[in-house]
Each structure stands twice: as C-alpha cells, then as structure tokens.
C-alpha cells in the first residue's frame, strides 16, 4: 500500500508540475486543461493517506505535499467559483437597445443533428450566432437561419475549422483573416447596437495543442495574442468569442486577458464547462466570450447539447457607459509584454 500511495501522490504532483512548465509542446500544455480533475484526484489521494495513515515521517511528508498541491490548485480555480469576486458586474435596469446576446456552438463537423442545433438557437433566440466546425453540409442544413438573421458571413471548410456567423445586426467592415495558419480563419467585424454604439467582434477558433492537430500551442497562442493586440488598440467596445481551445485558467489565457484588457464573465460565477459534452468527468471551459469593460452581464448559460462534443454557450450583455469606470481588467507588466512578444515572433 505504501508504494501504491506514493505512486498516486507522485502522479498528482507531476500533473501539476507539468502544467507549470511554460513549454509549448502538447505534452506540457495538455495538463492545463483538467484542473478541477486534478483537484479532485489530489483530494482523493489525501483521503487515502488518512485512511491508511501510519505515524511515520514519510506519511507526514506525503500529506504535506498533497496539501500544498490542493491549496495551489484551489488557488487557481477559486476565481471561477461563486465565492470569488465577479470580474464582470451584473447588469441592472436592462434596456433592449443596450443589450447584445451571443450564442457560440461548436457543432462537431461529423454531427448530423442539424435540427437539434436549430432548435437550440431558436430556444435561446440570440442576436448573434457563431457556428464552429462547419462544412458545406452544415451550411446547407442551417440556411433557414437566414429567415431570422438578416446578415451572415459563411466560411465553410472541410478541415473542422469552418465558421458560420449569423447576425440580426448588420456586419460592418467585415473581414475574414488567416492570422497565423493559411487554413484557420477568424472573422473580424463591427456591428452597431440599437443605441447607436459600435461594437468590435472577433470570432476565433485556433488549433489546440494535441498530436493530431498541432504538437505545440505556438500557433494558438500567437493567434490569440495577435487578436489581443487588436482588441487592446480598439477604442470601441470589444468582444472576442469562439472556441479558443484553451481553458479559462491557463497562463496563456491570463496573458491574453492582460494584453487585451478584456474581462472574463466566468470569474465569480462558475466554470461553464463546454467540452467534452459526452464525458461528465472530463469537462473544461473551452468556449469563451471575453468582453471589454464597456459591458455588464445580463445572463450566461450553457445550452443543451445536440450530439456535438461541445455544449453551446449563451451570453447576454448590456452596454453601460459607466461600466468602464466600475470594472477592472488584469494589469500587464514588463514580463508579460516580453513573453507576449516572444510568442508572437515564433513560427
């Protein structure tokens, strides 16, 4: 039993240590994802140590190591619990002309439950819909969305990186850009709210650091940081949304938020895990909507799955001219700027 417990403790510590190492290889970055799972695993290790406790120095050392691991992981996930301070304030006295609602849905390209997807969109009734992993079949089978969404930009692709953007607001100065990789698009556009305020939108879906996609996170990180630069320079309200293939608590997401000046509405509210829809014990928040300080949150929810490997995420925001003075973004320092510049210079 001593050997078994030691192995469990070493595994729990190793998973944490590997995620701390700032190496772009997938073998390190993949451990960014299961933070809640690592917390539970470490807690189970601690429980077993107490159950089979022996009054020896060795066991005391194991217990202390596991406790340190639990405290460290808990510190990292605490901002995404209900006990933490909300980074985005709740909206009050909601006015229709000031609101904007968005639904993000990674449909899973091989999924054929088109009607299920359409039903979820109809139920949520968002102002903007971003469908990700969409090919020609998904384009053809969701065309009826044009009945309720007067404006759209379709970038269907067969490589699981296609996008369909539907909007009830006119898409202004619209561009499809391939910021890092020639076959990975992002959609950049403005919309004008009913109150006349211009909002800058960036719809993104960078590649994940996994062996069958990219063996490193370099491309993903570079794309996100390039978008962060554009968001930071924009004086209008900004929303960056999509499947970012990174979890909300990773150091790369923190770097993105620092460099962009955007806020995460999850903080203080919960994880809103969007992937993997079919395995409850392996779920992470991969689908995001990061927003500028001009917005407050009306509501946010995870919608029902329609046979995809992702749950759709719905978010409703309210533009508030006073919000920018009431909310704080993460501050960047010289080390953050240096790291971001290094990442943007790679490839």
Automatic annotation (TrEMBL):
Keyword Lipid metabolism found = no
| InterPro entries xrefs | Endo/exonu/phosph_ase_sf, Endo/exonuclease/phosphatase
Keyword match Acetylation: no
Instruction: Classify the source by domain of life.
Output: Bacteria
A molecular function annotated in GO for this UniProt entry is: endonuclease activity
| Signal peptide, first to last residue | none
Question: Where in the numbering of this chain does the Endonuclease/exonuclease/phosphatase domain appear?
Answer: 105-310
Can you name the source organism? Answer: Flavobacterium rhizosphaerae
> Which UniProt keywords are listed?
Endonuclease, Hydrolase, Membrane, Nuclease, Transmembrane, Transmembrane helix
- What protein name applies here? Endonuclease/exonuclease/phosphatase family protein
Membrane-crossing residue ranges in chain numbering? 6-24, 36-53, 59-78
Q: Which Gene3D superfamilies match?
A: Endonuclease/exonuclease/phosphatase
């Amino acid at each position: 039993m001593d050997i078994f417990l030691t192995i469990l403790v070493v595994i729990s510590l190793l998973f944490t240590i590997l995620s701390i190492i700032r190496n772009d290889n997938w073998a390190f970055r993949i451990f960014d994802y299961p933070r809640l799972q690592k917390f539970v695993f470490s807690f189970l290790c601690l429980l077993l140590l107490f159950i089979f406790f022996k009054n020896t120095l060795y066991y005391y050392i194991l217990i202390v190591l596991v406790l340190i691991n639990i405290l460290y992981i808990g510190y990292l996930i605490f901002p995404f619990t209900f006990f933490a301070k909300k980074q985005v304030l709740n909206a009050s006295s909601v006015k229709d002309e000031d609101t904007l609602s968005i639904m993000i849905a990674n449909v899973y390209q091989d999924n054929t439950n088109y009607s299920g997807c359409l039903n979820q969109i109809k139920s949520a009734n968002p102002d903007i819909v971003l469908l990700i992993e969409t090919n020609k079949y998904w384009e053809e089978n969701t065309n009826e969305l044009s009945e309720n969404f007067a404006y759209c930009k379709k970038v269907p692709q067969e490589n699981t990186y296609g996008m369909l953007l539907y909007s009830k607001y006119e898409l202004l100065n619209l561009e499809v850009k391939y910021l890092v990789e020639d076959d990975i698009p992002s959609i950049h556009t403005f919309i004008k709210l009913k109150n006349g305020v211009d909002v800058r939108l960036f719809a993104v879906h960078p590649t994940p650091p996994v062996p069958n996609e990219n063996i490193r996170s370099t491309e993903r990180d570079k794309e996100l940081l390039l978008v962060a630069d554009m968001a930071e320079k924009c004086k209008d309200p900004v929303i960056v949304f999509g499947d970012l293939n990174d979890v909300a608590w990773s150091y790369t997401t923190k770097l993105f938020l620092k460099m962009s000046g955007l806020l995460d509405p999850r903080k203080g509210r919960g994880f809103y895990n969007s992937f993997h829809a079919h395995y409850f014990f392996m779920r992470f928040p991969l689908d995001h909507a990061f927003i500028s300080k001009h917005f407050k949150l009306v509501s946010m929810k995870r919608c029902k799955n329609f046979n995809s490997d992702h749950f759709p995420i719905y978010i409703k925001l309210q533009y508030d001219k006073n919000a920018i003075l009431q909310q704080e973004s993460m501050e960047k320092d010289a080390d953050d700027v240096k790291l971001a510049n290094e990442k943007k210079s790679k490839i």
